[in-house]
Design brief:
Length: 513
């Protein structure tokens, strides 16, 4: 069989088809390579996600354990600013800082605006070793001096991150002198920076050159750092991202806590100052009430003296003259009757003047004291048709300042007069006793009684038969001005029991001689 030779046109057709086949094959190979690369990328991403899930299941479920303190002690003891530390509290700061630290396992700190530590946690062996090593290189046992020396490298890196975050008002991410990284966020209150929160993150260096650089900076053996680096568990990147996000949230949370605590402190200070001002004003009012009471007693005493020394003498002199006139007057009936009437008027006036003097300032109170005056008062109340029984220990002897004695006497007298007017009974009892360095005087009657709550609510009334309410209020105010108390128990149909209580000093009460 004879083969026909290729023509030029057939040859070109064959070569063209062959070239198209090669192009198709190359395109298929490229697409296959791209597909394989995508599958490898997806597999790598899936493996990373699986490792992250595996880490969460292995490490994330473990509770946060407070790292042991470093040998050099607690740096928060050097805090002089105290804004963050005092308002948030040490325990809460540890929990907040520990939340992010739990995820990354390195170190964390919360700083005041001036750089003082409000919280300081060092967790990983890498961080603890370098932190303690650089602390020892400071050449001093004083932590404050060590911080100022510039040789405490871990603290210097943390201060740099903290300062930068506070100056910019934004989170910052910088490398640490210890080979890892630092992430710091400012703590803001109403737009003002009050502190910062910082965490260390990332894997320690494993490259020989980087390890050597850190070893030379800290003055340690490279092999020791390589060992620590190898034992440091790696954190997935998404865990680092979550820790950073938590840190920013915690900075906002701390700012809100500080703000609210500041408002509470301001309110507490205002309340305290207000209470102090009220207490001071109350003391002033009580002192003024005491002065007014003394001024009243002095005026009563002055009027009593005037009535006794002048008016009574004039009345007695008038009676003497009338008596003299009766003896020498002519026996004219009209004149005799007129002189007798004038003599009777003078007698009534003299008797009323003596009663008025006794009410203004009883001489027995001035001369013999409160207890004798209360006994005299029981006799005096007979004039108002009220029988008063006074009960007190025979051996009791009380010596009070004049203002206190007068106040207690007037209060008891007013209570007895109220009883005679409103109780509907002709009997009352006054009991005096000393107990627990206090003088107690109880005035009781078994009369009609009244609703104490209703009287208290209507204490501003001043008309009709309720005017005695003002007397009770006056007694209460004056007793409080002396540091004592006034209690009243009553109910309709159950009588009234009023108790006056006054603190006594040791010198004011003693057995009778």
């Amino acid at each position: 069989m004879r083969l026909m030779p290729f023509t030029s046109s057939a040859k070109e057709t064959f070569l063209g088809k062959r070239l198209q086949g090669r192009k198709y094959l190359v395109g298929s190979l490229v697409l296959s390579a791209l597909a394989i690369r995508m599958l490898l990328a997806q597999r790598k991403q899936a493996e990373a996600e699986l490792k992250a899930i595996e880490w969460l299941l292995r490490e994330g479920g473990e509770p946060f354990h407070m790292p042991k303190p470093q040998p050099y002690g607690d740096l928060t003891e050097l805090n002089t600013e105290l804004t963050v530390l005092r308002r948030v509290g040490k325990d809460l700061l540890i929990n907040v800082a520990g939340d992010a630290l739990h995820l990354i396992g390195t170190s964390g700190e919360v700083c005041e605006k001036n750089g003082d530590y409000a919280s300081c946690l060092v967790a990983s062996d890498w961080c603890r070793f370098l932190d303690q090593t650089s602390r020892e290189q400071c050449g001093t046992v004083d932590n404050r001096a060590a911080l100022a020396s510039g040789r405490w490298h871990c603290r210097e890196s943390g201060r740099e991150a903290s300062t930068l975050a506070m100056e910019t008002g934004k989170p910052v991410d910088i490398p640490c002198k210890g080979g890892i990284n630092l992430y710091a966020a400012p703590i803001m209150v109403d737009g003002e920076t009050v502190g910062s929160i910082t965490i260390g993150y990332g894997d320690p260096p494993r490259d020989h050159n980087q390890l050597t650089e850190v070893a030379e900076r800290y003055g340690v053996q490279v092999e020791r750092l390589r060992e620590l680096s190898a034992n440091m568990p790696s954190r997935p990147q998404f865990i680092v991202a979550v820790a950073k996000a938590r840190l920013r949230t915690e900075a906002v949370l701390l700012g809100e806590i500080i703000k609210r605590k500041g408002a509470e402190e301001a309110l507490a200070d205002l309340t305290k100052n207000l209470e102090v001002r009220i207490a001071k004003r109350t003391q002033q009012l009580r002192a003024l009430a005491t002065e007014l009471n003394l001024a009243e007693q002095q005026e009563r005493k002055r009027l009593a003296v005037e009535l006794h020394d002048h008016l009574q003498h004039l009345l007695v002199l008038g009676k003497l003259r009338i008596g003299h006139g009766k003896r020498y007057a002519p026996p004219i009936p009209v004149l005799t009757e007129a002189l007798a009437q004038v003599d009777q008027v003078l007698s009534d006036a003299l008797r009323y003047t003596r009663t008025l003097v006794a009410e203004l300032s009883p001489a027995v109170l001035r001369d013999h004291g409160l207890l004798a005056a209360l006994k005299w008062l029981s006799e005096y109340m007979q004039k108002l048709s009220v029988t008063v029984a006074v009960n007190m220990p025979e051996e009791l002897h009380v010596t009070l300042p004049e203002d206190q004695a007068v106040l207690l006497f007037q209060s008891v007298r007013e209570l007895l007069i109220n009883s005679s007017k409103y109780a509907g009974t002709s009997a009352a009892t006054v009991t005096v006793e000393c107990r627990d360095d206090q003088l107690r005087i109880q005035v009781r009657d078994d009369g009609a009684g009244f609703d104490v709550a209703a009287v208290t609510a209507a204490s501003s009334a001043s008309t009709g038969g309720q005017s005695y309410k003002f007397g009770l209020s006056s007694i209460l105010e004056r007793m409080q001005a002396l540091g004592g108390s006034f209690d009243i128990l009553s109910a309709p149909g159950q009588g009234v029991t009023a108790t006056l209580t006054l603190p006594l000093s040791q010198s004011e009460t003693r057995p009778a001689a």
